[in-house]
Design a protein that fits this description.
heterotrimer; A mainly alpha; B mainly alpha; C mainly alpha; A: two-stranded antiparallel ribbon; globular; C: mainly alpha; two-stranded antiparallel ribbon
Chain lengths: 500, 102, 624
């Protein structure tokens, strides 16, 4: 259909760009320009994909693009990539956050810049591949791939306890993805035994789900694997440490993108592939998500470290996303997918601001902040803006997603929805505490505090415009994802496939 | 005619003695001696088998084993001498430089 | 018509945006001019819309906001008489306050920030006034909450003031939980989020459904309007600048709760229990707050508790099925209460941030205009016969009295008692602050009050005085307001009372008010000090310790659980669990590592052991 393999290009462009950094590895100025160029190119490519018509191809699918090549036919692995509205949304988010990450690392990364930017780009490769993969083994490959650059990013350029944080991150994630592999292999074997055809292809597995006991065990394995990533309480304890110790760009990518891979995997892989086990799974997800919303918000309030507070807020927000997925109807899943985007924007902005504060004040501790509005009004205004976005103030982005999730939840399970609404009040406590501790209070007359620079204002302003835009006009985003979400939810387990 | 069982029992006993010598003695030379004994035990079993099946192949193999044993002993002893020069000890437990992070 | 509504909404928003983005470049005069102009334009648009609508209802959609499946949260507007008049009030009082602030905030560093928030607030309040779709209303509702938070904590350098803002946001958010559930319920039950749609289907609601919706609406309104039990944030909200208190915590935001109830009145009407609850809470709050006001020393806190009390009356009105009375009182209250707050603001500024009435005194002579204005406001608040507050309060009390059932008579009694207390606490404040004192113990204002600041207040005073004309119970033009509200669902024009009863009640109220006034003169004229040791006075000053109760029952446990969950459960339990697991694995690993420690003897032994195992297995395999 298209002369160029656009999807493979999406995946390989960052890798190629990253490899080209080898030529200027030690020079910070050259590295960052190359990285910015590559990220911008990727963003343009992703945006141009928006122009593709939402084709209702034969078979009722919602695929915008599809690529399929043989890989290891003897083992049933194929190199299959598919792009639909949901994956496009997440690819766009990744591309945008990538540009932002390069911009915020502009001045900050002075040692081994080549390696740093290469790792950033490698992460984008991994994540894009994950969002596009339609073959389970390919999916698993990219799932594992995304952690490797994060390990190095946190371990080399992080803060005081970076080594422990990165080790913890890796142990949790690789440990759980081991279970994921077991689940995938189990599914492969069961599917093969049942249909006679051994394949990892997502589409064929969707068409012929295995028997109930197999589904149950595989779902258990999948859930553990994905729940660590999202994260769902109680498997979340790696997140605060990793987020706090990561460099700012690392935190942004971790919160903005990597956490979404877990939720996306539940949406794309776990629930559709295993329809018989999905009933119990959704209930479990719903309960854990609600617990997470309250628990994370409650713990966040007690935090003394700004980044840790925002990390816990991430867990609470992802709780809303998972609640939406757990309810599994049109409204709540639309809200959940929208929230994936929203959280990626608002929480990334908060991490960027936290990083800016750490650079200027030399500390992340809340007791040492306070009274910042006087000396840094623009930064404080941005901080207040994104804090209100995080709170779910109507007119800003998070409100739309949360409203859709909760109203959709009410359609299915009124008690859960009521609990969700109450959980929103919990959010107020820690956000207001965060705002007051940093911005308000007596002016401490610190020396040499600069307000936002032009580059930082560009990044934050861009994010603010997006937050406001989605808050007031979520139509385009909702239209983009409506097709795939309706299909996923409506058919229950079948995701119609069409190869153009 | 010697019954095969007798030969085999003797060979196994010799083998066990050799194995015990290898394992239980903290001395590199005793390990080599033990290995020699085990090799000879194997040779003995082969001779017994050759006798039982009236086939010279077994005895031919014994000649091979003797040759191999000789080569191995010469190289092994040379190594032991060099090792002793290095470490002033013949205790195999002292030679764990290639071991783990212990 | 749509254009006028758009102008009304967008003018303040544009003003806020302009000042936010370019405020520092406009200069102080530019900022003030643009902000005031924005609100004045909105006022003109509101007036125009009111005139052009000719009493007809107008419904239109401004913007399709969220649409997924059959869920539609569009920015719809429902312009009926209620909305029209409310919009007029909001823009008028808002204009006065914007103009007043130009003078009040003349020396403040944060002028730009102030006007941005004030304009933004006006926009959000107008959204609440005009919105048809509940989600759109929620936008305005929460937006107001945010602006209120920002404006209460406007002088953020003081942690206490910032905390007051936080408290306000928190309490209103607790109320808003209920609003969210209402949204979800309306979608699931009615498939329609618009007020017009919901009201149309309200009659068909089952008993339980109406009860649920009603209770939730009550909770949401109670949060915003600071009725019991969600009242404690309002007195603390006085930390903000006086014009803010006038606008947000007298005229507009606190009345938004009542307004919501009036917009959705058919839903409330469907459940008699909810109506009873509204009346009960209203009456109780009116009485409780009036008692508390009696012991306050801070002039703004007196007015805050007074606001709580008067909004209680409005709740009582809704609970007594008389939204005309509620709206009437809302309008009167907006005029005289903002007048009082603004006059108090003049005093506070002139005395260099002095709030304690017992440290004031004799101000009538030093600041005659302000004193006069305050006096006018006080008269109206006290429901002095024939002035604005008199007719509105009287109608509320009559409505309550006429409702069937003994409990409503009790509510009437509570309301009547509060009506007697009102002149008492109001004139206590007036006499102690403005009244004559012994020579030598009077306070001298250290700063002059700009003439503009007081000049702006006279229109407000005039309206407060003449407000009664809106809905006179007899004579030409009687019940004008009620008839104006004929297109509002649930509005009653006349109360089912005989002329004789109405007259009797009015006379009783008038006599009571005058008596209370006399008592106030006797008790407080010339009073310069008040002993604070008396137990009952302490209790009243702390508003019967409601705040402390909620602090110890809710706030402290919340914080304790927060710390506990972090240290014991998250760091201690879960994380410790995983760390121990990792350490355990480490121990096992090191144990195994001993096996391959590079020791030759171990290796040899292992080889021979393995060989023996193989031989044994082969033997068994051979013989099995």
């Amino acid at each position: 259909m298209f002369p160029m393999p656009l999807l493979s290009l999406l995946i390989l462009l960052p890798l190629a760009g990253g490899a080209s950094l080898a030529f200027c590895a030690r020079r910070m100025a050259a590295c960052r320009v190359v990285a910015l160029a590559v990220s911008l190119l990727e963003l343009i490519l992703a945006v141009s994909l928006l122009m593709l018509p939402q084709t209702q191809a034969a078979g009722g699918g919602h695929w915008l693009l599809w690529e399929d090549h043989a890989w290891l036919p003897a083992l049933g692995m194929r190199y299959t990539l598919g792009l639909d509205g949901v994956s496009l949304l997440l690819v766009l988010l990744t591309a945008l956050l990538q540009v932002i990450c390069v911009l915020i690392s502009w001045e900050r990364i002075t040692e081994r810049p080549g390696l740093y930017y290469f790792l950033l780009l490698l992460m984008q490769t991994g994540v894009n591949g994950l969002f596009l993969a339609q073959d389970l083994f390919l999916f698993y490959l990219f799932w594992e791939l995304q952690i490797v650059p994060m390990f190095f990013l946190v371990g080399i350029w992080g803060h005081e306890r970076r080594v422990q944080a990165s080790l913890k991150l890796v142990l949790f994630t690789f440990g759980s993805s081991l279970l994921l592999l077991v689940g995938i292999l189990g599914l492969y074997a069961a599917h093969g035994a049942q249909s006679g055809q051994y394949t990892f292809s997502l589409a064929s597995m969707l068409a012929a789900p295995p028997s109930a006991p197999v589904q149950f065990w595989v779902m258990a394995a999948f859930l553990v694997g994905f729940a660590v990533k999202v994260p769902l309480v109680p498997l979340h304890t790696w997140l605060p440490e990793a987020h706090t110790q990561a460099p700012t760009a690392g935190s942004v990518l971790l919160a903005g993108v990597l956490l979404k891979t877990g939720a996306y995997a539940v949406f794309r892989v776990a629930l559709p592939l295993l329809p018989l086990a999905a009933g119990g799974a959704t209930t479990l997800i719903m309960v854990l998500a609600l617990v997470g919303i309250f628990y994370a918000a409650w713990v966040a309030r007690a935090q003394e470290d700004l980044k840790r507070l925002v990390a816990y807020s991430s867990i609470a927000h992802l709780g809303v996303v998972m609640l939406g997925l757990g309810i599994w109807n049109l409204l709540s899943v639309s809200g959940a997918v929208l929230q994936m985007l929203n959280h990626g924007l608002s929480t990334s902005a908060l991490f960027i601001l936290a990083g800016m504060l750490q650079d200027r004040l030399g500390t992340r501790r809340l007791v040492e902040m306070g009274g910042l509005w006087k000396q840094m009004p623009v930064l404080s205004a941005f901080f207040l803006f994104f804090a209100m976005a995080s709170l779910g103030l109507p007119g800003l982005n998070n409100f739309v997603g949360e409203l859709l999730v909760l109203v959709g939840a009410y359609q299915a399970h009124s008690l859960a929805a009521a609990a969700g609404f109450i959980g929103l009040a919990w959010g107020v406590m820690y956000v207001l505490r965060m705002v007051q501790a940093t911005l308000f209070g007596p002016d401490r007359e610190r020396e040499g505090l600069r307000d936002v620079s032009a580059r930082e204002a560009l990044v934050l302003g861009g994010l603010a415009i997006l937050v406001l835009f989605i808050g007031l006009h979520p139509g385009p985003v909702l239209d983009l994802i409506e097709g795939p979400v309706a299909a996923a939810v409506g058919d229950g387990a079948r995701l119609a496939l069409a190869t153009p | 005619m010697v019954p095969l069982e007798h030969v085999l029992v003797l060979a196994s006993l010799l083998f066990l003695v050799g194995a015990a010598c290898v394992v239980a003695r903290r001395n590199l030379l005793m390990i080599i001696i033990g290995v020699e004994v085990m090799l000879n035990a194997a040779g003995l079993a082969l001779v017994g088998g050759s006798l039982y099946w009236r086939n010279l192949d077994g005895q031919a193999l014994v000649v091979f084993i003797l040759a191999v044993a000789a080569a191995e002993v010469s190289v092994g002893l040379a190594l032991v001498v060099l090792a002793h020069r290095r470490r002033r000890s013949l205790n195999p437990d002292d030679f764990k430089m290639l071991g783990g992070s212990r | 018509m749509k254009g006028l509504v758009l102008i009304m909404l967008l003018a303040p928003l544009a003003g806020a945006a302009l000042n936010a983005l370019a405020g520092s470049r406009l200069g102080r005069n530019g900022v003030r001019a643009s902000a005031c102009a924005a609100v004045l334009i909105a006022l003109a648009a509101a007036a125009g819309a009111l005139i052009l609508s000719h009493g007809r209802i107008q419904d239109f959609t401004l913007w399709s906001w969220i649409k997924v499946g059959s869920f539609q949260a569009a920015m719809d507007v429902h312009y009926d008489s209620l909305a029209g008049l409310m919009a007029m009030m909001v823009t008028f009082v808002g204009s006065v306050i914007h103009l007043y602030s130009a003078s009040f905030m003349r020396e403040d560093q944060g002028l730009v920030r102030y006007y941005v928030y004030l304009n933004l607030f006006t926009f959000f309040m107008l959204v609440v006034t005009l919105a048809d779709n509940l989600a759109f209303l929620y936008l305005g509702w929460e937006g107001m909450g945010f602006c209120s938070y920002a404006l209460i904590g406007f002088w953020y350098g003081d942690n206490e003031k910032a905390s007051a803002g936080r408290k306000a946001f928190l309490y209103t958010r607790i109320g808003d939980i209920a609003f969210g559930v209402v949204l979800a319920l309306c979608f699931v039950w009615f498939d329609d989020l618009t007020i017009t749609g919901i009201n149309a289907q309200a009659a068909g609601l089952s008993h339980g459904a109406a009860l649920a919706l009603g209770l939730l609406l009550f909770w949401a309104a109670a949060g915003k309007s600071a009725q019991l039990p969600l009242s404690v944030w309002l007195p603390d909200a006085m930390a903000g600048p006086s014009p803010v208190s006038a606008l947000i915590h007298a005229a507009t935001m606190v009345t938004a709760g009542v307004y919501l109830l009036m917009r959705l009145f058919p839903v409330l009407q469907a459940s008699p229990e909810v109506m009873w609850l509204l009346a009960a809470v209203g009456a109780l709050t009116a009485l409780w707050a009036a008692l508390a006001a009696l012991a306050q020393r801070d002039i703004k806190r007196v007015l805050a508790y007074s606001t709580l009390s008067q909004v209680g009356y409005m709740f009582l009105a809704v609970g007594a099925s008389d939204i005309v009375a509620g709206m009437f009182h809302l309008l009167s209250h907006a005029f005289f209460k903002s007048l009082l707050f603004l006059a108090a603001g003049c005093v506070i500024q002139a005395l260099d941030e002095e709030h304690d009435i017992f440290r004031m005194g004799g101000l009538q002579r030093k600041m005659p205009q302000v004193g006069m204005l305050f006096f006018i406001g006080a008269l109206c608040l006290s429901a002095f016969p024939l002035l604005g507050g008199f007719f509105s309060k009287d109608r509320i009390l009559l409505a309550a009295f006429l409702e069937p059932g003994l409990s409503y008579k009790l509510f009437w009694a509570a309301g009547f008692l509060a009506a007697l207390l009102t002149p008492l606490y109001t004139f206590r404040a007036y006499f102690v602050a403005f009244g004559p004192r012994k020579a030598g113990s009077e306070v001298k204002p250290s700063r002059g009050t700009p003439r503009f600041m007081t000049a702006v207040l006279w229109p407000l005073a005039l309206l407060a005085l003449m407000d009664g004309l809106l809905n006179l119970p007899m004579g030409p033009g009687k019940h004008w307001l009620a008839r104006f509200f004929s297109n509002v669902p649930g509005a009653r024009i006349e109360l089912p009372a005989s002329g004789g009863m109405e007259l009797a009640m009015a006379l009783v109220s008038a006599v009571g008010v005058l008596a209370a006034l006399g008592l106030a003169v006797w008790l407080y004229r010339g009073r310069a000090a008040e002993s604070a040791e008396k137990g009952w006075r302490q209790a009243l000053a702390q508003a019967l310790y409601l705040d402390r109760l909620q602090l110890s029952l809710l706030v402290r446990p919340y914080r304790a659980v927060s710390n506990f969950l972090w240290r014991e459960v998250d760091d201690g339990g879960l994380d410790l669990g995983f760390t121990t697991l990792a350490q355990g694995l480490g121990i096992v690993s090191r144990g195994w590592a001993a096996w391959s420690g590079g020791r030759l003897t171990v290796y040899l032994f292992s080889v021979l052991l393995a060989l023996a195992a193989v031989v044994v297995l082969l033997t068994f395999a051979w013989f099995a």
